[in-house]
TrEMBL record:
PANTHER family: BETA-LACTAMASE (PTHR35333), SLR0121 PROTEIN (PTHR35333:SF4). GO terms for biological process: beta-lactam antibiotic catabolic process; response to antibiotic. Residues 1-26 are annotated as: Disordered. Coiled coil: none annotated. This is Serine hydrolase.
Amino acid sequence: MVQTQFTIAQSDSAPQPQKKKARSSSLDRELTTALAGFHGTIGVYVRNLRTGETVAINADTLFPTASMIKVPILCGLFDKIHKGELAYDQQLVYRDSLHYDDGIVGSFKDGTKLALSKVAMLMITVSDNTGSLWCQALAGGGATINQWLDTNGFHQTRVNSRTPGRAANQAQHGWGQSTPRDMADLITYIRQGKAVSPDASEEMYRNLGHQYWDNDGLSQIPPDIKTACKNGAVNQARSEVVFVHAPHGEYVYCVMTKNQKDESWVRTNEGFVALRNIAAILWHHFEPKSTWKPSAGYEKWW
């Protein structure tokens, strides 16, 4: 059962909108109706940064992040760069010992040279797993990234994999864990130039705007609208955090699922469908005069 709550509190470090937050009964009802009958647990956090309109549905419940944990890894990596311990354009050497799976980075030959900036780009843009674990190590490991998160007020978000003392958390949540509110606040923190430094935030945000996996929530937002996004998926969980530069006011949202009965990897997976439905509801709620919808036949590309 989906439990609905209206919550306006945020972490101390999270960006605050200019106006007092407004609870949205109509949007809450529409989202709750859309989520009714979901076979698993689903959480949603939405905030319009212009009006303060907010909806929270299981927004403070812990969920597996899957690949969304790569946003905190990116922050930890840029913190090292900001401190002068790494250089964004430094040349790295790939070794077979780094191999995790056969993504782009994992397909490189031993001894291949490439810039750190390219590995970071592949981590975010195509969600490359081998590159992401490489970045996690370069950032100082999960414990260092978790310390950055805690220092910056993101107390619910943690890296679990390859992190001392977090084996039990990894068994429950996988690579990382967070809440819809925390992930939405984190991407907003980056957007507003408060993560690491203004210049680091700007480059991180540019990376988050280059998303290859655009067939879920992003497919329900017009292609000429600027967005920043990271998604993640494992068998029983599908998640997505999106910052939308809508014409009538920026808004951010995060959808996370867990314990899904539908573990399929097709477009009609219940979690993927929920990501698309929520994105469409939010777009038309915040842009009620928009008549845009995906082109007929768009789904054939996926």
